[in-house]
Design brief:
By secondary structure, this protein is an alpha+beta fold. The chain is 24% helix and 31% strand.
């Protein structure tokens, strides 16, 4: 089973399709700025669950974020969990800058 993932900026989401089918098998919605991409919701159609569609969405989108030098905010629990299991992507995570009070 081949999973193809593409960014659809006008819909503010990544879409996954399986074996060249036109039907969308899964999506990863995001909010993007010039410095940051926040992944807010991931959904995989029930018939594709457990077949690597979600992982393909996360891996592709994070690889593209890295290439674009974007920080990642993983507000979606699926993204947060996936990154926790793949520490090679932890360096992408947004770190808030705490201000020091005078």
């Amino acid at each position: 089973m081949a999973v193809e993932v593409s960014d659809v900026p006008e819909a503010k989401r990544y879409e996954a399709r399986v074996d060249g089918e036109p039907k969308v098998a899964g999506i990863a919605e995001y909010i993007r700025t010039t410095e940051l991409i926040a992944f807010v919701h991931t959904e995989v159609e029930p018939e594709y669950e457990g077949k690597g569609v979600g992982s393909a969405l996360v891996r592709t989108s994070l690889d593209e974020a890295r290439a674009a030098h974007l920080r990642v905010l993983a507000t979606c629990p699926f993204y947060a969990g996936w990154i926790a299991r793949h520490p090679e992507y932890e360096d992408l995570l947004y770190q808030s800058r705490s201000r020091v009070s005078d």
